[in-house]
Design a protein that fits this description.
The chain is an alpha+beta fold. 26% of the residues lie in helices and 29% in strands. The chain is built from 5 helices and 11 strands. The strands form 3 sheets. The protein has a 5-stranded antiparallel beta sheet. Strands 4-2-10-11 form a 4-stranded antiparallel beta sheet. Helix 3 crosses helix 4.
Length: 240
């Protein structure tokens, strides 16, 4: 059973949707939360995430040409906003922070991967719905949430067994897939209006058949990473 998500002002949206599996509920909740914003902040103005900083994370990295094409279409349509587009090979769903490089040893990484490889984690299919946003980014809503919440909880528990620092609790998880980052403070309304023009696009489905343990770094206006280990999820072939 997926852990219960709770109201948390540090998350966005602060409250989770009423249903973690109903696409309509999730998409409308994401949109209404974004549309209610008055201001957008500079995504890169983040204490602790200066250029060159590196940390270990678990991520989902979609390998879908259709998803890349959809993201590119949205980015090109919104080019007039001057945001920092996520590159084709930079699309990702952030799951669990493991720890910074100075906190996590190679032995701890091996221990962690060993735990995760033994977990009965099932492959699953997601949908990416254009388009909504957060306080500092534009992003696809993803549905359903339950498999991602369960995966986050399992990876977090493995981290506790491996004695790595870890990150935010599963109760704060708000799954999403970013397509562009806002790079200066501005009024939200013109951005909301522009994004609303894309909400009629059909969702794109993609399969989650593995999780990647990456060394994540921030560059000038992008997140980049090196995949250190990739763990295949069970029954991945049934989605083919």
């Amino acid at each position: 059973m997926a852990p219960e998500l709770v109201l948390d002002q540090r998350a966005f949206p602060a409250a989770p949707p009423d249903d973690l599996d109903d696409p309509h509920v999730i998409v409308e909740h994401d949109w209404s939360s974004f549309a209610d914003l008055g201001q957008l902040s500079n995504h890169w103005d983040r204490p602790g995430w200066s250029n060159g900083r590196r940390a270990f994370y678990w991520m989902v990295v979609p390998r879908s040409k259709q998803l890349i094409s959809q993201a590119r279409h949205c980015q090109q349509h919104l080019d007039r906003l001057g945001m920092d587009s996520v590159p084709d090979d930079g699309l990702h769903i952030t799951l669990v922070r493991i720890g910074s490089l100075d906190q996590v040893s190679t032995a701890a990484i091996e221990r962690l991967v060993g735990y995760v490889e033994q977990l009965p984690l099932q492959a699953f299919r997601l949908n990416a719905h254009p388009l909504a946003g957060s306080r500092s980014a534009l992003r696809f809503s993803v549905t359903p949430w339950t498999p991602l919440v369960e995966l986050h909880a399992a990876l977090s528990e493995a981290g506790r067994h491996a004695n790595v620092p870890g990150g935010k609790p599963t109760t704060r998880l708000r799954p999403h897939l970013g397509v562009a980052y806002n790079n200066h403070a501005r009024s939200a309304q013109p951005v909301v209006d522009a994004v609303s023009e894309l909400r009629g696009l059909a969702p794109v489905s993609f399969d989650v058949t593995r999780v990647e343990l990456v060394e994540l770094r921030r560059e000038t206006a992008a997140y980049r990473w090196a995949v250190l280990r990739s763990v295949l999820l069970q029954d991945a072939d049934r989605l083919a």
